[in-house]
Amino acid sequence: MTKDPSDSKIEQGGIKEENFKRKRWYNQRDVKFISAVLVFVVIFQSYGLITGPSRVSDNLQQVLDSGEKKLDILVWANFPAEAFHMELYQKLGAIRGEQEGAVRLGGVRPGDIKFLSRKYWIKNIDIAPPEE
């Protein structure tokens, strides 16, 4: 019994072209995954940019607008600080203890205050009262 060559999907070791559908680039799994990651990162960063200024108190904003070079601030977080948070605080300024449930940072530059306010785990940032 011989097979009819028109019934076979294999023709000389390959697949017939009419039965093969090539995926378009936008239907590729990798492209969809990378696009989803990019959308997530953009939304996450946008959230920080949009909500960051609301975390800076009015008193601190006035001092920032006056052009101070380095400030002492109080930082309240949504949860207790862990090693990662403390390391970030140390990069931005000198940790000078805890006051009123907040971490007191000394010698923080205005650009670093804006950077810190964009973090999702920050609740509020205020100017620290003078040390006694």
Characterise the protein shown here:
The protein has helices at residues 29-51, 58-66, 83-92, 110-117, and strands spanning 10-11, 14-15, 71-77, 94-99, 102-108, 122-127. It folds into two domains: 16-49, no CATH class; 52-127. By secondary structure, the protein is α+β, with helices and mostly antiparallel strands. The chain is built from four helices and six strands, in the order ββααβαββαβ. Strands 4-5-3-6 form a four-stranded antiparallel beta sheet. A two-stranded antiparallel ribbon has the order 1-2. The longest helix is centred in the N-terminal third of the chain and has 23 residues, at 29-51. The termini are far apart. The chain is elongated, with a radius of gyration of 29 Å.
Quick structural gist:
This protein has helices spanning 29-51, 58-66, 83-92, 110-117, and strands at 10-11, 14-15, 71-77, 94-99, 102-108, 122-127.
Specify the helix fraction band. 25-40%
SSE pattern: EEHHEHEEHE
Taking the sheet with the most strands, its summary is: 4 strands, antiparallel
Number of separate domains: 2
Number of beta-strand segments? 6
Report Rg.
29 Å
The tally of helices reads 4
Between the first and last Cα atoms, what is the distance in angstroms? Answer: 103 Å
Give the low-confidence spans: none
| Outline | elongated
Mean pLDDT: 84
